[in-house]
Request: fold
Amino acid sequence: MTKLWVNWAGDQQCAPSRLAAPRDHAELAAELGRAAEEGQHVRVAGAGHSFTDTCLTDGVLLDLSRMNHILDVDRDTGRARVQAGMTLAALNAQLDRHGLAFPNLGDIDVQTIAGATATGTHGTGGRLPNISAALHSVELMTADGRIAELSEESDPRAWRAARVGLGALGVVTAFTVQLVESFVLEGIERPVPVEDVLTELDSYIDHNDHFEFYMFAHSPIAMTKRNNRVELPAAPRGELVDWFADVLLSNHAFDALCRVARRRPALIPWIHRGAAYAGSYRRQVDRSYRVFTSPRLFRFTEMEYAVPREHSVAAIREIKETAKRFDSPMPIEVRWVAGDDAFLSPAGGRATCYIAVHQYQGMEYEPFFRACEAVFDRFDGRPHWGKRHFQTASTLRERYPDWDRFAEVRHRFDPEGRFANAYLDRVLGPVSATQDQIDQSR
Reply:
């Protein structure tokens, strides 16, 4: 019987020839050896939270959810050794018991650490880079079963490639993660006019540890969120309060409004205005990982682009105007991060503004997303690797100064393209063609 793999959003699926869930290095090496004997490609699926076809294969699909433990914690250095199949939710809770935390996180924690870092997943904070910047070292198994430990000291070029690697180099099996002492955040949510935010944007970004906002195409209001470190004891909200705010209102009630919008798109401007004004003042003081994250219980698809921070205001205004031309009940999300040095990081080498647009399940997304992508292209945008985009290797190569360096590492670690699939062939180019480009550029 064919086993079907489907992503979280329900809009990407494949029927691999074999699904495998190895428990350790030996079982993983055996699976890779069998794949080589059968001439099959290999991909790894994390939690399936990517909106792209990055995991899809008709070959072997690996599930590392059984390799999901913290192997070691060093409180003196603030480093932890973590297996790749561990989800961020489980990891955050266990790290907190050791007095450690990630300095920055996104607003979703269901992803595996391997999937989140491989796609350049990020939070918000003008002085803080994305999650993959916390990787002190990366353990990788290549197609022949060899294990490589990649760090700035052992192999700096491969380390910079593997931190945002798209699964193109091999199977990432573990990380050593550089963490900080656990901390408490005060999160304040408040509605503010979009134009007021944009007028004082640098102040909002620079005077808060973490700043972000949501806005709707047809509303003048931004739903802002400021998270700052405080020397206060954690004061978790009651379960009923959490359920009312994060489950009933933010998920079930909004899901109901989106269902109405899907049936009657003419109501979308009214829904936007009402949803924006419903974002009243809220305050939360709790452990950092609980303030950063929130549940997403309804289905949608998403496009997100990284543009240089200096283009923030112009890009935000253009995307808001573009969104008015299309039927989407969903908000636009805006965040900022510092630059980093991973070869394929969307924030590589530059302070970055991330702008995300969404479409509710069952509603047409492509014309909307293509129009937004045209805006992002004008601002030298780079796509989030885990979210929808229509780029190809030929359109992306010039946007990444270290593109050819990544290609060299990829060819070194996977010369036969064992870990390739249609998505990687499209966005990175086939391994053979990539090597030809490298040779021509020398």
